[in-house]
Amino acid sequence: MIDIIEQVRKEVQRIYKQIDLKYHIEIVVDYSKILAEKLCADTEICIISGYLHDIGLKIGDKEDHANSGAEEAEKILTRLGFSAERIMLVKSCIKKHSTETREAERTRIEEKILANADAMSHIAGYYYVMCVPHLYLGMGFEDGYRWFKKKIKIDFEEKITLPEAKEMIRDKYFRLKEIIDEFNELTGKT
Ligand SMILES: [Fe+2]
User: Distance, CA 83 to ligand 1 centroid (Å)?
Assistant: First the structure.
């Protein structure tokens, strides 16, 4: 019998575009797994939450993708025979993963791990630099740059709260920040 993680991976291959999988989702899953192992969290819950956390942007209400994604995840996981008790754990990670959720609301380590891994991926996968503002938000070059600059600052300073996560992503963030600072000089804008 194929394990649940493999089944979820197959499901999401049908939901996300290849570009989302390669430059965001799979990176979130990798960081979720590393952090779960480092912090002795529930690795299976972290990996499944990583795969499913953004499905609300694809098959749910995009305006409220964290909550709609949690509902869609429940439907998928119920169909795959995952237990109701463990589905609730995945749902709570997905519901609390977005920037709108205050850190204090993330009480379980698995919830913190998903939010941290999501933010780490924005920095490590260059997804916010190259893809999201232009492909999904219809922004031009400079607007996209300003949006990205603000987002990764919030990701690094506010959303990446686990010391282990911050340590892992620090060098990549400061390399990106150097490029941002050079670009500020070029555009004369902040
Ligand atoms: Fe995400």
Answer: 24
